[in-house]
Amino acid sequence: MATVEITTESFGPTIDGNDIVIVDFWASWCQPCVRFAPTFEAASTKHADIVFGKVDTEAQQELAAEANITSIPTLMAFREKVLVFAQPGALNATQLDSVIDAVKALDMKEVHAAVAAKQAEGSAPA
Length: 126
What we know:
Number of strands: 5
Strand order of the largest sheet: 1-3-2-4-5
């Protein structure tokens, strides 16, 4: 699968409608972003079971702000609607494959339980 462009309007439905989504926040003027693009594209063809999305932070400034992007490129990985990885900086192919393998290997029952516990902790009266 090739990469898909993600906008403010398509971000939520893309995350909600797919098991694993990896998002590259980038800009055309960012040289590390430009150098990372072929690595990201190659991974998208290698892992057809994952949605690889790209967010142009110049065109989608509101989305970048909502995602708290302060440095680009920033890579985020979502699994079953949960943000499970976020890191600024370009990765090489081996590093990206390691992230993908780790995301695929997650025990999502444990992840969802941890998320629920954190949410319950946050809503508990002081």
